[in-house]
Amino acid sequence: MRDGSGTSLTSFYRYVPELDVHVIDCGGRVDLETGTLRLHILRREIEARPPRDGVAKLLIDFRETVWADASVHAELSRVTRSEFGLNSENPSLRAAILHTERSGAVAENEHWFGSEVAAMEWLKG
Questions:
Q1: pTM of the full structure
Q2: Domain of 99?
Q3: End-to-end Cα spacing for the chain
Q4: Does any domain span residue 20?
Q5: For each successive 10 residues of the chain (125 residues), what is the average pLDDT?
Q6: Is 56 within a domain?
């Protein structure tokens, strides 16, 4: 299956079994359809590999993301936080976000990093 840009929808995802971490690379152009499909794939992968310690660990890379427009970014953020459950009230999900312009803690279960190494260290926690 491919998204609108011709990219394989599964090429954005990998699982790191030794750390029990799901890695999502959101590089490239992301529209609402692509982002929604990727969230569905991620949910399926987390369900297929239940977290060993009860906490799903995500590393999400936004360093090369190009949003189709601001409304797409806003809607996918809303869906991720409300429907997918990435929020401070959900202790069963922990996310390390890679970004070029932001870093630091957003919540106890969400931190932003500039490097994958630092993000993985935090997720190992």
A1: 0.88
A2: 13-124
A3: 35
A4: yes
A5: 52 94 95 93 94 96 96 95 90 95 91 96 92
A6: yes
